[in-house]
Each structure stands twice: as C-alpha cells, then as structure tokens.
Amino acid sequence: MKNSTLLVRSLFLIILIAGSAHLVTYASQKNTKKFSKSENKVLSDTTTKKHKRESKSERSIINLETDYIIGKWKVTYNSKEFKGAIVYEIKKEDNMFNAYILKYQDENGNSQKAESIKTLVIKSFDGYQGKGQYLVMYKGEKYDVECNIDMLDNSTFKLSYDSYGYDGIEIWKKQ
To answer: For the chain, where are the alpha helices, taking DSSP H only?
Structure first.
C-alpha cells in the first residue's frame, strides 16, 4: 500500500473516532436538558397537588438544610428566679420558625403543661446561624429582644441576646 493511501485512511479513521465522540457528547447533553425540564414539570405538578390539600401553615417548602430545627427543644435554667427546664416546640409557619412553650419542669423532674406562648421568632436561618426576636421575662415584665442563633451541632444551638446591658446565653438541646 502506498504511503499516501495509508495516510488518508488513518486520517479518515481519526476523524471518524473524534467525530463520534463529539456526537455522543452533544447527544447526551441534549438528553440531560430534556430530562431536567420534564423532571421539574413533574415536581411542580406534584407540589401543586400537595399545596391544595395542606393547610396554610404547612405550605412552607421543606428545606432539608434548615428544617432540622423543627421539633421539641429543652433549655435548662439555674437562676434565683427559676431552677429547672422549659420545653419548647419549634414550628415552621409562613417560612419562619416560631418556638412555643410546651411545659415547665422543676429541678426534680416534675412537669407542668404550659399555656402555648410564642417566645421565639426566627426571622432568618441558614442552617448554621440565625437571627430573630426572643421574649424575655424579667421581674414579671416581658421584653422582646433581638437574638442570635448559632448551631453547635444538629441537636444543640446557642441562643444569645443583649437586653439593656444584660447578656444572656441559653443552650437549647433537641428532645
């Protein structure tokens, strides 16, 4: 075989292999885009059907990065005014997290159900840190103070606030 024929056949084979690789890559990208669009349509249809059946407070979109904060939390206090613990329940309402008092526990473990009072409104929370309003009781008076939330781990967070020169820090533990 002549060198020129061998060269032409080799070039043809290289072009055929390279062209096939480009064609396969291009085709797989087009299929991925079509799948994503149809998948989004299916998800939005399913979400719409669920929203029709859920109540207003349950319409919040579930976010796995932040919604682990939902549930029961216990805070232990050891002060002159109160020795014991308070159990709170954090709920997601209108894309904000709100904490309500569930019960009081004394230092011996005896508990008493509490009137459901909203004590914490978490206005922003990214899964690690948050900001909100906290209801502080001091000498029979109620104060709404700005607070910061810092997650220590998935089952513990630190709530801190500064109220009229008094720095408060509470450790909330998931039940």
So the answer is: 3-53
